[in-house]
Each structure stands twice: as C-alpha cells, then as structure tokens.
Amino acid sequence: MMADTDKALQELDDLFAVARSEPPALPDRLNAAILADAVRAQAGFQAAAPAQAPRQPLWRELIEALGGWPALGGLAAASAAGLWIGVAPPSFVPDPMALAGYEDSSTAVPYDSYDMAVVLSEDLQ
C-alpha cells in the first residue's frame, strides 16, 4: 500500500513540474484591457499631484508650532496673570524675597526712624 501512495505522489509531482515549466498564456484581449485600465489609473494619479506649497513666513510657522491662535491666546493670558501676580501678589502668597533669605535694609538698621539728615548731623558734630 505504501508503494502505491509513493507512485501517486511521484506522478503528482511530475504534473506540477510540467505545470511550472509552462506558464499559462494570457489572452491578448485581457492583456490589452489590463494595460488600458492601468493607463487610466496612472493618468488620474498624475493630475492629482499637488504643486509645491509656497513657504510661510517665520512668525506663522512659530504660531503653528505653538498650537495656533487659541494656544497663543492662552499663553498670553497666562503670561499676563504671572506678571500681575509677580508685581502685586495676593496676601495669601508668600513673599518670594523672604523665601530667598533676602532681608530688607530698613530692618537691619538699629534705629526705628532712619533719617539721613540725623545721621549726617551726628557725623558733623
């Protein structure tokens, strides 16, 4: 039984070898229809090719890089709020100079009322 299956497989392999050696011929009419369809498709691609876009100014590229006008408006509002909070901080915000260890010169003088005229009059006597 094994010999029968080996012989059948050998015959099948021979048939496949013959089929591979002779590629099927494409009918001329089908070949012409395929080529005509390819020409139509390629003509559509060539017409749809966009021309090179003109270069945008640098400021417009910067605005687009930041996210457009809405993002630029938010950036301007946040900058204005930060400047205002820095100039006139609310009472609940700690003083950044005190946090940095900067001491006001008016508290470093031993006199409560530091007056230049008094100091100069003391030096002249």
Q: What's this model, at a glance?
A:
This protein has 125 residues and is mostly helical.
Task: Describe what this molecule looks like in 3D.
There is one protein chain. With 125 residues, the chain is mainly α. The chain has a domain at 63-124. The protein is 69% helix and 0% strand. It has seven helices and no strands. The longest helix is centred in the N-terminal third of the chain and has 20 residues, at 2-21. The chain is elongated, with a radius of gyration of 45 Å. It starts with a helix and ends with a helix. The relative contact order is 0.03.
Features:
69% helix; 125 residues; mainly alpha; single chain; 7 helices
